[in-house]
Amino acid sequence: MCNISIKLGNCVKLLKTLPSKSVNMIFADPPYNLSGKNYQTVKNGKMTNCNKGEWDVISDIYKFNEKWVSECVRVLKDDGTIWISGTLHNHPSIGVLLKKLNLWIINDIIWYKRNATPLLSKTRLAPSTELIWLASKSKKYYFDYDTAKILNGGKQMRNLWEINAQRHKTKHPTEKPETLLERIILLGSKEGDLILDPFTGSGTTGVVAKKLKRNFIGFEISPEYVEIAKKRIGIENETENYSYSKAIEKNE
């Protein structure tokens, strides 16, 4: 039986309650700082100001990132890995911090969404990617290379991942596809490991961790999303399998 826990509150304060070197793998989908009067998005085919929530409006993105990343590094085990998603709005800051904190940067993974939303503006290229930093405390870290190869049809997996964007299962505006999290958790952890998500949102990481028989602890600042995540994780059909899991089962 997996131990699944979601706690309400500021992730930095909650991270301080965890023992050092207690977590096997961390997946973080932090605020990208996309919201505000200077940022626009498309809604119902029309341009409008981007407003994902107050949690996505940050005055000093570097200082904000430094606080939570530092605490994540403290709680990460010596052979663990941290995976951090982002876009050009916050990704450079994260990269600088990983180097400053003396982490070993393993990969910068490009998540390519072939079916990304078209861009109405004619002044730039249509954004179709997100980036994922993969780092560890040293060159000795857990990484399931063999599983990565299985998931990639028997060939060496590269750092360009083509995974389509999917219809959100909840109202959370930045919900990640479960297939993306499944790949990350399978490559970065073993059954029984403890997975941490400091920005749990609607609970995608917890859903996948439970399905893959990992323990999970998530932090979320929004009471509404905490309830959504708890309900979502609790009602999941545990007999359901994803395509990647089936690929692995064929090779067992």
What is the CATH level 1 assignment? Alpha Beta
Helix content: 25-40%
Low-confidence stretches: 235-245
Multimerization state:
single chain
The best one-word shape is globular
Summed up, the helix count is: 8
Number of domains: 1
In CATH terms, the superfamily is: Vaccinia Virus protein VP39
Order of strands across the main sheet: 1-10-9-2-5-7-6-8
Question: Strand percentage, roughly?
Answer: 25-35%
| Largest β-sheet summary | 8 strands, mixed
Question: How many angstroms does the end-to-end distance come to?
Answer: 22 Å
SS-derived structural category: alpha/beta
As a whole number of angstroms, the C-alpha radius of gyration is: 18 Å
Give the helices and strands, then pairings.
Elements: E1 4-8, H1 11-15, E2 23-28, E3 36-43, E4 46-50, H2 61-75, E5 76-86, H3 91-100, E6 104-112, E7 129-136, H4 145-151, E8 160-162, H5 178-188, E9 194-197, H6 204-211, E10 215-220, H7 223-234, H8 243-249
Parallel strand pairs: 1-10, 2-5, 2-9, 6-8, 9-10
Antiparallel strand pairs: 3-4, 5-7, 6-7
Helix pairs in contact: 2-3, 5-6, 6-7
Keywords:
Rossmann fold; 30% helix; 8 helices; 26% strand; 252 residues; globular; alpha/beta; two-stranded antiparallel sheet; eight-stranded mixed β-sheet
Concise synopsis of the structure shown:
With 252 residues, the chain is α/β, with parallel strands linked by helices. It contains eight helices and ten strands.
